[in-house]
């Protein structure tokens, strides 16, 4: 997908989980290990725009239609020029699910030069208030499985803002190499590089694999399909079949 132009919602790739009550992802139910740390780039990974080019601050929430079933959830922002901004369609629920898994941390590694603006966007956008029917039970089953260490339980704190999902892993948003980002993240979290899975849209950032990080190179933004492929790639690197 071409970059340099902010995408409209109609330009987003279709979600493979379009039903109103989709089943939990298969990787949550297969009793195989998951990465201890999921790390995400921002521009054209979590959201379909360049944060330092396309947004003219300040940004403010776009209030949802009161008749909508998600009327309390802010999923779109507007800037000074009235341009609209949001995450890729699958991203909010992906973050909501990962944030609920015991033993799993989430972080951001971005070279964006406008870190304060990125934090403001993440702070104003909201996550889904709950998981789809049946997903909470799947989280509890995962928590009790050998894959999660057994005998644990799902996280009790429910993140409301998108930025809250990253409280366990932190935000590294500044111009430097991604290797530097990961060195800082590793020191903060104590997670080994080999236990990290990184999603990014730029091929040069595959340099992080020299550290032992698994990087999933994506083209059209974060989606359930890309998460599944990334987990499969990480498991393959760990010798998990």
From TrEMBL:
Superkingdom: Eukaryota
Entries under SUPFAM superfamilies matching the protein: HAD-like
Pfam families attached to this UniProt entry: Acid_PPase (PF12689)
Region annotation Disordered: where it falls in the sequence:
1-24
The record's section on InterPro entries has: HAD-like_sf, HAD_sf, MDP_1_eu_arc
Give the matching PANTHER family: MAGNESIUM-DEPENDENT PHOSPHATASE 1, MAGNESIUM-DEPENDENT PHOSPHATASE 1 MDP1
Q: What is this protein called?
A: Magnesium-dependent phosphatase
Native source organism of the sequence = Humicola insolens
Lineage at the top is: Eukaryota, Fungi, Dikarya, Ascomycota, Pezizomycotina
């Amino acid at each position: 997908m071409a970059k340099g132009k902010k995408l409209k919602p109609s330009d987003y790739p279709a979600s493979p989980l379009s039903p109103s009550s989709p089943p939990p992802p298969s990787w949550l139910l297969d009793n195989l290990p998951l990465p201890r740390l999921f790390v995400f780039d921002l521009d054209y990974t979590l959201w379909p725009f360049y944060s330092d080019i396309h947004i003219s601050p300040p940004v403010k929430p776009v209030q949802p239609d009161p008749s909508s079933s998600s009327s309390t959830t802010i999923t779109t922002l507007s800037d000074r020029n009235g341009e609209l901004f949001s995450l890729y369609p699958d991203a909010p629920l992906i973050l909501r699910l990962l944030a609920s898994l015991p033993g799993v941390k989430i972080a951001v590694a971005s070279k964006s030069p406008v870190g304060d603006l990125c934090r403001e966007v993440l702070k104003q956008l909201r996550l889904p208030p709950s998981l789809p029917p049946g997903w909470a039970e799947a989280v509890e089953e995962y928590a009790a499985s050998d894959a999660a260490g057994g005998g644990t339980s799902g996280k009790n704190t429910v993140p409301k803002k998108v930025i809250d999902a990253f409280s366990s892993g932190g935000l590294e948003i500044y111009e430097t190499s991604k290797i530097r980002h990961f060195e800082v993240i590793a020191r903060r979290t104590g997670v080994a590089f080999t236990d990290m899975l990184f999603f990014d849209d730029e091929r040069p950032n595959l340099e992080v694999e020299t550290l032992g990080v698994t990087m999933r190179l994506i083209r059209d933004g974060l989606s359930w399909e890309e998460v599944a492929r990334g987990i499969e790639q990480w498991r393959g690197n760990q010798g998990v079949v």
